[in-house]
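Write out this protein's structure.
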Amino acid sequence: MDLVEISPNAEPPVCKVVDYQKFLYQQKKREKEMKLKATKVVVKEIRFGPQTDDHDYNFKLKHAQEFLKQGSKVRAYVFFRGRSILFKEQGEVLLLRFANDLEELAKVDSMPVLEGKRMTIMLSPKKKD
């Protein structure tokens, strides 16, 4: 049996007389259970081109709705290739339209940001009441 300090910050500090190895084992077991209960954030990506057509847009919108209903975050991005970087405004309009169409299911974490050849937007599912 050992004298184990349970709560060092309390006034006065709390100690118990227990088997130290058993105490460490139970502590590791508790931490493992907490880790399993923690929610894992899944980020799904959806890729657009700057001139994505309506049918493709609707198809990807439907997938994004399914991802958000499952509780995953969605990262949508427009990938600019070659000279298509000239259509930055078109890409931004496309992403804002995408966020607007998903307004009832998701909230916007970050507005469209241009990073190199990609313009990205992050959406996370709204909390259910």
